[in-house]
Amino acid sequence: MTCCLISSIERTVTNIFAPQIPGVDLVVRPVGKHRSSRIQAFKLHDEVYKGMWIAPGIAPLLESDQSESDRVIAWISPYQKSRVVAIQPGHGAEAHENAIYRKLVHNAILCTAGRLPEE
Q1: Does 118 fall in a domain?
Q2: Strand bridging mode 3-4 / 82-87
Q3: pTM to 2 decimals?
Q4: 15 lies in which domain range?
């Protein structure tokens, strides 16, 4: 089974067709019951996208309250035999310094590797 954190095809499509809005304050909250989104809501100052193409059949992981951003900003995406976790935020140091964001990325890596425990 192939593991990847984000599909390069989806990233390319996103960068070509979705307008990027830099420097936006947003509240990020987990949605759904997927193991990767076992985090609390948190605030972030980051670049967002509006009108981003997202493949059908995704399972949302995170949503944003920001009107300048798409509502769904992280998701699990089915792709053949791979586990794919796509996370839109994370463009700057503020995201990388945020402990909750780092926990999200940590969970996503474990998920794609098939090593995220049930509880």
Answers
A1: no
A2: parallel
A3: 0.78
A4: 3-112
